[in-house]
Predict the 3D structure of the following.
Amino acid sequence: MRVVLAEDLHLLREGLVALLRAHGFDVVAAVESGPELLAALVGERPDVAVVDVRLPPTFTDEGLQAALAARRQVPGLPVLVLSQHVEQLYARELLADGSGGVGYLLKDRVFNGEQFVDAVRRVAGGGTAMDPEVIARLLASNARNEPLGRLTPREREVLELMAEGRSNAAIGQRLFLSDSAVGKHTASIFGKLGLTPSDDDNRRVLAVLAFLNSK
Amino acid sequence: MTAARQTLVALGRAAALAGLALLGQVAGLLMLAAVLLTFLVGAVFVFPSAVRLTRVVTRLQRGLAARWSGVSIDEPYLPAPPPPVPQADGWYRDGRTLYKKPTIPAFNKRWNWMTKDPATWRDFAFVMGDVWMGGLLVAAPLLVTAYGIVLLAGGDPTGVLWILPAVSTAYWYAPWAVRAHGTIAAALLGPTEKARLARQVSHLDAVRTEVVDSQAAELRRIERDLHDGAQARLVAIGMTIGAAEQLLESDPKAARALLGKASEASATALQEIRRLVRGIHPPVLAERGLGDAVRALALDSPLRVHVTVDLPERASAPLESAAYFAVSELLANAARHGDATEAWVDVSAQGPALRVTVTDDGRGGADPERGTGLHGIERRLGAFDGVLAVNSPVGGPTTAVIELPRAFRVRSAPVSAWRYFGRICWALWPIALFPQGLVAMGFKLAGTPVKSWFLGLHVAEPFQWPVIVGMIALGGGLLAVALTTTVRSREAEGGGCG
């Protein structure tokens, strides 16, 4: 799988390259600034891009802007954005085109190599990978949302994991539930939130995120 | 009818002002006596009372000047001295003398405060002179009429000659005199430029002290947070990794557990630093500016927040930060105390000023005097001469307006050639339309032999009408051009300076 990586801190960049190579990824470009990133994304057409939000030359949201610009030119280009802080605003912007293939994680998540690589693979496959903190804040700001209040604690847990972008199987593994039990929970959640159920994992996740973002 | 009423009202005010001037004269004479007693005989105790009496009169004058003459006069007095504070041993020190009771030190302080304030002596000058200047000015119609009546009563018919002009001019004279009295009062009763500057300096001094204090407190808080949080955790991580290193050979299982712990601790340290950074300078604010930072706040708020932003450019970083934290606090207040479900935030530029309005549908009753949060916002804004106005009737809704002056550079609209042309049109259109056009037409229709300076009447007979009509058309055209250029340049200013 071909990866483009953008990270301005030398140590972290080398670490990420090593991590990705160790898991069988082919890192075709490891760049350190916004303009380079855009050129690499459009030129290389990687299977997935791992991008730091803050990059030179402006050290603002250069990386995010480059990723959004590249997705406008190459619709559906999978991008996993890494940041020292997560903002609902940025998550919204990434999700706005509704085509999936986006990830938004705190840099800390790199500590757990397995989970991080799993997220990269999910995004490359057109899925989503939202940081648990983004989801927590989404839910907190939806605290007065009436339908959400009707969920049982278990259903809420399932909803959180689903919003992070995990498949039924992964949710079952996490919560020690059978596939059919997870299926029952998701059906109930969709019923309570008034969403049309879908068998496709990715579309289901996008529906949930759209619901949470509709505040 | 209304004209008569207006005149009567103005005359009534004039009479009141004249009466007050007389009263002031009495106060002035009393103060003169007090001054003489004080400085010649040494009866210092009468002085403060006399000054206080004078100030009552001048305060009344200032109030009336604002209400009747439309001249607002600020109080020029120095701030009153604080009451004396006893020393640790219970005695009161004043210079090199100690007193058992605070009476004498307090009096000394008051005495110095009053005698050294130039406003005291300006007040004195005003009450002494008011009758002879402003008082006579406003009372003139009444006095002249009264004199006429006295003459009439004495059987002298020339009294009518006094009364008639006074009554007939009162309609114009009385309101003018009341306004003029206000202006005269402002000259003596207002603060001098020196006093105004002194006041501003002491205000800035207080603000600076507050800013420096709160900044120091903020730095101390950050230092403590780093010291107790991230720093301590990094030490623990280092120790854990060291221990794992030693166990690597003998007990790899335990070493692995320790490394897991170290990684957890580093995640917690990161989280703490992240929270700290958010409190110092939120990353979105640095990355996107005030507009998006407020939008991010809105998304994180449990309220349904509607944000509108209209800014021409980014304001300076410290100013953006002050506005951001103010909005953050206001939204948090609305959610916490106000029981609100919905809020509206409007961020816009008003000329060079930045204005943020936060409205919520909560139950209101917010009071800046009581809420420490609101006071904190005011202090933060104060450093930039910013102000916070809160309107929060019990039962809601609450509206808070933040205004920070001088947030944006004002580009002065260039005076274009068009604008000069517009001004020339404004100057010329009445000449063409009225004397040369309409008035000349009136003369022509009336058939008077007078030609004056009307071009239309000087030219040969067959051209007279065309010239007159042409002049009318020219005047109307110039007026139209003048109007359009003005409207257009106003629009350009409105769009350009914001």
Chain A touches chain B through 22 residues (CB under 8 Å). The radius of gyration of chain A is 17 Å. Chain A has two domains: 2-130, 135-213. The beta strands of chain A are 2-6, 26-31, 48-52, 79-83, 102-106, 128-130.
